[in-house]
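Hi L.,

You mentioned the student needs an example of a multi-chain input paired with its predicted structure. This one should do, with 653 residues in total across all chains.
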Amino acid sequence: MPEAEPCVRVDDVHKSFKRGSELVEVLKGLSLTVNEGEFVALMGPSGSGKTTLLNLIAGLDRPTTGDVWVRDACISSLTEGQLASWRTSGIGFVFQFYHLLPVLTAFRNVELPLLLLPLSASQRKAQVLNALELVGLPDRMYHRPGQLSGGQQQRVGIARAIVTDPALIVADEPTGDLDSKSADEILDLLGELKSSLGKTIIMVTHDPKAASRADRIVHLEKGQLVDDVPVLAGKK
Amino acid sequence: MKYLFLILENIQRSPVRTILTGLGTMVLVLVVTLVFTILTTLDRATTEKSQNLKGIVTEKWQIPSQMPWAYASSLTEGGAKDPGDIQPDDYMTWGFYLGSTESDPKKRDFTNIFFAFVMEPDKLLTMMDDLDTLEGDAKRDLQEAIARMETNRQGVIVGPGRLEKMNKRVGDRIKLYGRNFKDIDLEIEIVGTFPKGRYDESSVIRRDYLNASMDAYQQKNNGKPHPLADKTLNLVWLKLSDREKFSKVGQQIDKSASFTQPAVKFETASSGIAAFLEAYRDLIWGMRWLLAPACIATLSLIISNAISISVRERQKEFAVMKVLGFRPSQILLFVLTEALLIGTLSGVLSAAMTYGAINYGMGGLPFQIAFFPRFLVPIDCLWWGAAMGAGTAFAGSVIPAWSAQSVNVANVFAKVA
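Structure written out for the whole complex:
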């Protein structure tokens, strides 16, 4: 069996924030590798640095020291403009509270990142329909977020994350605002993206049941990686 | 185009706020258009011309100017008496008659007041501003009214606005009770009207009728002339083709010994009007430098506040857009374009509505100052409106737009979590 290529590599990353006169170190020399096609769950208590790590991997924030690599790009050294371009097609972000634009229909929300790419209207339409098909919502494409349930809104959020066909999907507690049935459906969908499309997924969660759907669970505590365990196939 | 649709969809987010922002801009443009209408008209009237100049002879040391009628014959020839002296191309004399249709002084009010230029009827079409450029039916109607006036010494032409306020019509006979010329009461017959617009509230009485009434007063009072008998000529207008002739006529009048009691001065119409407007200097200064800037500043703040609220509400959305790959400069442009779109459209709409309502609905802006009873909104207001709306929206949206593009994604989502 060939050795898996790393998709994400976090090298000895430190991240500090200034709170008043105090310097708070959130990540303390953290290193982590996530391979292509892997589904990793990040767990840990509040304040352990999960979301900070996710923001660094997504290029939304920069490490104080250390490097973050996604495939061949050292994203911690990219300029703001390069990062913005990279985010358009390099990564898909799924939020806990969906964060769809309320004035846009599901179709237009999913189309939003495609507006930044040099695509014709018909190419954009084809990609949006494909993404909505994948999340099972083609019949809701002209509904606005307010007309959709939480689970449906999260599906639209996932369609928006995958519409540019990124290799990496990061999800910040994607089931945190959903009932258990909808949460299960979303986790099934993420599993499907990994197994059928080969997407690499990093998911922050507090829910052990959600984490058990991943290939690996990484535990963070006080800004350090304290545990990194594979999930046994039988437990999934 | 794909971004324009996105901007249009965003504008529909809060129709009430969008409409209120638009209405704010429309009110600003309305007020400033009205102020600018008056200022630009006055500016135009006080701007010196270089050809087809109109000059005014008035009393030198007193306002209002009151000269003896005896000056008229010589002044209308530009004071020419020696060989080589120049005569004006055309002339017009003005006296002012203020009367009332109401005999009882206690009952006199704005509805029965009657103001008239006392002048030669045939000069209406050659010397009166705006009437000298009439064409088509309006010109023909006025020509017919002038012809009727020339055959009827008591005939008068009245502005349509005044006629309506007095509840009179063409053909009616009226008795006027003199107010500036006390006891000079006139029996007049309305023989025509002015076209709607500048002379809406004015009237014209024949000069020889006023002179005859002064003579009648003297006969009735045992040869004692009316106290103002020697003060019935207020202005003499002279038309000259160029500046050189204008200066020459000025010198002729200046050096003439005929115009010393009282002394007179000759100046361009624009300087005459400017001198007359000196009385309104503070008001005009206030309109130009206080009212208009205050409106612009106030509305900019209101618009800025509305846009700021909208930007604050949409911080998460801007953060999401950044996560999706939108650059800060694109977000800045989104917010600016949204504001500019609302501002420009509201500005043009307001200016167009003001133009239509004032010029066609009201027949001009009724702001009585100098000899301008009504002001017409210039067509230029369409681009003023657009520029003002865009400028105010831009000024009001720069800071909110900058704050939108500076949204820190990690901070926004940390607050949400």
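You could point out the following to them. Chain A has seven helices and ten strands. Strands of chain A lie at 6-19, 22-35, 39-43, 65-70, 73-74, 91-94, 168-172, 200-204, 216-221, 224-230.

Best wishes,
N.
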